């Protein structure tokens, strides 16, 4: 059998991508970039339905099929309901982008058990449940792309972001292990671990802290969501077939 059979098959039809947490920030930028590249998109959100509808409108302007779905990714039941809705609309994802996440800022000694559970559940358990729900279809067609949005702190660790760093470190290890498991099935698994990106996740920093942060980064500025999205777009494409199990960190030279 031709080793590239699955990939060649996919070049002939329109891809569909599911992006979790796509109502704002990096997730929204990814949805728009994929739509611009001709992919159908499923936009998942948890609470921000108005924001998700706005992202959907922008994606539709590229002439692709767009679906919005809501689910709490901590709940397997809600993920299964979301999958049923996606299946019944005929938009089974060939590409899964596990982007939904939350951060937590504060000393570890002050972190409550509930805060720990929330950060780990949304960043890591949600990723596990979504991947488990949507990978069987990719395996059955012998083609798929799973892209996990991690963080530079999953690689380097950050003071006052211990729980978030632990969650994203888990995402990185999950990525490497699953890549080995799914490689024979024609499914690649990679993580994108952004550095400091200009989104609401940095809104806890004041002007001076932001200035100091920019000075620490060799390229001298924050990243833009569109710059993360362009890397995700490449990893989502058929031509990235030989890249799997990698943690790629667009961070302006901050952490190497």
TrEMBL record:
Keyword Oxidoreductase assigned: yes
Classification via PROSITE patterns: ADH_SHORT
Protein family according to the UniProt entry: Belongs to the short-chain dehydrogenases/reductases (SDR) family.
EC number per UniProt: 1.1.1.100
Pfam families on file: adh_short_C2
Domain of life: Bacteria
This protein's UniProt keywords: Oxidoreductase
SUPFAM superfamilies in the record: NAD(P)-binding Rossmann-fold domains
InterPro entries tied to this protein: NAD(P)-bd_dom_sf (IPR036291), Sc_DH/Rdtase_CS (IPR020904), SDR (IPR050259), SDR_fam (IPR002347)
Name the UniProt record assigns to this protein: 3-oxoacyl-[acyl-carrier protein] reductase
GO molecular function, one term: 3-oxoacyl-[acyl-carrier-protein] reductase (NADPH) activity
Matching PANTHER family: 3-OXOACYL-(ACYL-CARRIER-PROTEIN) REDUCTASE, 3-OXOACYL-[ACYL-CARRIER-PROTEIN] REDUCTASE FABG
């Amino acid at each position: 059998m031709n080793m590239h059979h699955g990939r060649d098959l996919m070049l002939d039809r329109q891809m569909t991508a599911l992006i979790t947490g796509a109502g704002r920030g990096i997730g929204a930028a990814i949805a728009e970039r994929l739509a611009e590249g001709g992919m159908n998109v499923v936009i998942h959100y948890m609470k921000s339905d108005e924001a998700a509808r706005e992202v959907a409108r922008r994606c539709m302007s590229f002439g692709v099929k767009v679906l919005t779905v809501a689910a709490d990714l901590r709940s397997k039941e809600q993920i299964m309901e979301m999958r049923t809705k996606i299946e019944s609309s005929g938009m089974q994802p060939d590409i899964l982008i596990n982007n939904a996440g939350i951060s937590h800022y504060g000393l570890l000694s002050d972190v409550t058990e509930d805060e720990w559970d929330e950060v780990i559940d949304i960043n890591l358990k949600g990723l596990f449940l979504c991947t488990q729900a949507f990978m069987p279809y990719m395996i059955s067609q012998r083609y798929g792309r799973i892209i996990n949005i991690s963080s530079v702190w999953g690689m380097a660790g950050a003071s006052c972001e211990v729980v978030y760093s632990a969650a994203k470190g888990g995402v990185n290890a999950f990525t490497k292990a699953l890549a080995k498991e799914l490689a024979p099935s024609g499914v690649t698994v990679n993580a994108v671990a952004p550095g400091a990106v200009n989104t609401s996740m940095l809104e806890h920093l004041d002007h001076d802290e932001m200035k100091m942060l920019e000075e620490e980064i060799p390229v001298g500025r924050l990243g833009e969501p569109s710059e993360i999205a362009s890397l995700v777009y490449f990893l989502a494409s058929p031509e990235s077939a030989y890249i799997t199990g990698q943690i790629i960190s667009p961070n302006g030279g901050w952490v190497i």
